[in-house]
Structure formats: C-alpha cells, structure tokens
Design a protein that fits this description.
2 domains, 5-stranded antiparallel sheet, 4-stranded antiparallel sheet, 290 residues
C-alpha cells in the first residue's frame, strides 16, 4: 500500500538520497488542495481476489483522475529533470563519465636568453680598441651631429649560442628607466646592421661598416628613440623593442649607429647594458624559443 498524507512519497520509485531530498513535496492535505486527509493508493497484488482487485483498481483510477494527483505527477517529472543525479546523462548505467584533464597550454620549456658584450667605436680614434671607454664591455653609446664632426657607434656581440641550425633568434632592446639613460637631439633614431665577426675580435671605428654613410648596406632593424616613441613603447610594450629576427649561429654580431644628422644639435643615446643577476635588467638581449 502507498499512503499519502501531509508528505506524499511513492515507495515504488527508488529515488536516490539527493533526488528524495530535493523532490519531497510539502503538500497540505486540506481540501483546498484536492487531497483527502487519508489518501490511500492501492498497488495491485497478485494474491488478492479478482473482485477486490477490480474494486480497488476502480478506486485507484478515480483518485488518479483528480486534478491534484495529475499536478503532482507533473511536478515529480519536472523535479526529476532539474535535480542533479549520480547518473550520467543520457545513459542509465552506473559508470560515471570519465573526468576530463584540465586544459594545459603548450608552453615552451626551451626558451633561452643570451646577453651580449658591447664595444664602443669612436671615429676620433679609428684604430683604438682599448681605453677606459673603448674597452668597456657593457656600455652603449651612440653620437652623431654632422658629417664633418665625429661619430660614435657601438658593436653588440653575442657568443656561445648553442642552438640548432634551424633555430631563430630575436634581438630585443629593453629600454632603461628615464634616470638610467641619456637621450638627446632632434632625431635619436639608430640603425642596426648584422655583420660577420669572429667572437672577441677587435671593435674599432675602422671596422664599422656604415662609417661612410652608405645607404646600400642592408639594415637589420631600426630603433626610434624619440620621446613620443619611447612613451608609446613603455605604454603598450613595457619598454621592449622587437628589433628583428636572425638565424641563430654560435656568434651573432650587430653594429649600431645613429641614422640621421643632428644639425645644430647632437643626436645622442647612452645607457649601461645590465644582465642578471644584476638589476634592473636593461639593454640588449637575444631570445630563442621564447
């Protein structure tokens, strides 16, 4: 026998604990809901006599035909659809769906960064390779005013690049903070040239390939150091210039010099190249696989 009083529960449905907890309907048994206070639903049993079965079935049909019971059946169906279940939709077996592994982005673990040796090349001393200024290996300096005045360029050389022949290397420049560099002149824009040099070879003005203001020398890249350009570079790229890409080699050498005359003023730029563990890290570096 299935009995419905204040809480109506169908024992013929083996609802799990979650479903039972969410779908237990609190129905008032007052006549306003259409339920008599002692509602008895008969579940046919094969041991009953045929006449009792017919009589009780007729009674059951009468009860099930009431609007309240029809509404209750609809509510139970809706509740079963909305209630979380341990079953895996749409299958009714007890095997849960396999848990999907979390998404893992394909992050390269072969990123390598190389820091260079810098050497200043001064047109006033075309054969100098050793002095407190020319012998420094971490100082960047460019200067240019007119063709009849002296110039200063800088060589930037990377060595020990142990990568495969098909690897690509990116030359980048991390701007120094405002108080850690000096930039002057109307157009402090410099050109970058890639050249072939032996590791540790002499760096003199006579070895600067753009010393004669040639316009036919292939240019690897160009860096705009004017104040508006540096401001935009800080704002949108964190002060990082992507100068260009080159095929990696054990040694990569670049020469840099101002692109334009300054006229009555001098186009000038200097800073110290800083590599880890020193801080703040600034200046040139070569990145591969990043």
């Amino acid at each position: 026998m299935i009995t419905a009083s204040r809480h109506l529960v169908y024992s013929s449905f083996k609802l799990d604990a979650t479903l039972g907890k969410h779908c237990l309907l609190n129905l008032d048994s007052s006549p306003s809901h259409g339920f008599p206070r002692n509602l008895t639903l008969f579940r046919p049993n094969s041991v009953h006599l045929a006449e009792n079965r017919r009589r009780d079935l007729d009674k059951t049909k009468t009860i099930l035909a009431t609007p309240a019971v029809k509404m209750l059946g609809t509510l139970l169906v809706i509740c079963a659809l909305l209630t979380p279940s341990a079953l895996t939709y749409p299958y009714l077996n007890v095997t849960a769906a396999p848990e999907q592994p979390p998404f893992a982005p394909n992050i390269s673990t072969t990123c390598r960064i190389y820091y260079p040796e810098l050497r200043v090349m001064n047109s006033q001393y075309p054969s100098y390779d050793d002095s407190p200024l020319h012998g420094a290996t971490d100082f960047f300096m460019l200067l240019r005013q007119r063709a009849d005045t002296f110039q200063i360029a800088t060589r930037v050389q990377f060595t020990g690049i142990s990568l495969g022949p098909d690897a690509s290397c990116s030359l980048v420049l991390q701007l120094a903070a405002h108080d850690l560099q000096k930039v002057l002149g109307p157009s402090p824009v410099f050109n970058v040239y890639q050249v072939e040099r032996e590791a540790g070879s002499a760096a003199m003005w006579d070895t600067y390939e753009a010393r004669n203001f040639t316009e036919t020398l292939p240019m690897f890249g160009q860096v705009n150091g004017t104040e508006p350009a540096r401001y935009m570079q800080w704002k949108y790229h964190g002060g990082l210039y992507q100068i260009g890409n080159a095929k990696c080699n054990d040694t990569l050498t670049f020469q840099m010099g101002m692109a334009f005359d300054g006229g009555d003023q001098v186009n000038y730029w200097d800073f110290t190249n800083v590599a880890p563990p020193e801080t703040p890290v600034q200046g040139f570096r070569l990145m591969a696989g990043c």
